[in-house]
Design goal:
Blueprint (H helix, E strand, L loop, with lengths): L1 H5 L2 H16 L8 H19 L2 H16 L8 H19 L2 H16 L8 H19 L2 H17 L7 H17 L1
Helix pairs in contact: 2-3, 3-4, 4-5, 5-6, 6-7, 7-8, 8-9
């Protein structure tokens, strides 16, 4: 994986080729097809970060969507697939500023959260993801309700990450940042 991030373009192309070959060996309804789709999408995202090829980003989104279709509720990895799409759409929003991408990011993170009831170990991460997306929307469009909900979600994250949780200090930082944003408004 590191070699893809820092290596040559040929390495990434070869990695994609191997992942595509693995995908061909896993036709639908193979139980691991969604994993192969996600693997290709991750490498395409790596190549997008390195070379900025928009078609890589678009294909990654498409592959993540296909993987999600193979993981209907109550599939144990559905929340992960929802998050994968949200992350890539968030990158596209950061790159091109399409409001509909940000709206879908928030919707996907909310759907993922609904699948992660307390005390699920990644519930706090899902709450944090929604809070960050809402904060982004607040910064871009100025809707005060987004900031208020983000602060509320950050408080919930903090409750799920008491000291000495490894994410406690980061949670303290993010809620402080959100509160200072509200103070400055």
């Amino acid at each position: 994986w590191t070699r893809f991030q820092y290596g040559r373009q040929e390495d990434v192309a070869e990695g994609i080729s191997w992942h595509q070959e693995a995908l061909e060996l896993r036709p639908a309804p193979h139980p691991e097809r969604s994993t192969s789709l996600n693997n290709i999408a991750l490498v395409l995202c790596t190549r997008f970060h390195k070379y900025g090829r928009r078609d890589d980003l678009e294909e990654a989104i498409s592959l993540h969507r296909e993987a999600l279709e193979l993981r209907p509720a109550p599939h144990s990895e559905r929340s992960s697939s929802l998050n994968n799409i949200a992350v890539v759409l968030s990158e596209r929003f950061d790159e091109y500023g399409r409001q509909e991408d940000l709206e879908e990011v928030i919707s996907l993170h909310r759907e993922a959260l609904q699948l992660l009831h307390a005390p699920h170990p990644v519930r706090s991460t899902s709450l944090n993801d929604i809070a960050l997306a809402l904060w982004t929307r607040f910064k871009k469009y100025g809707c005060q309700e987004d900031l208020e909900e983000a602060i509320s979600l950050h408080r919930e994250v903090l409750e799920l990450r008491p000291a000495p949780h490894p994410g406690h200090s980061t949670s303290l930082h993010t809620i402080t940042f959100a509160l200072s944003t509200r103070f400055e408004e």
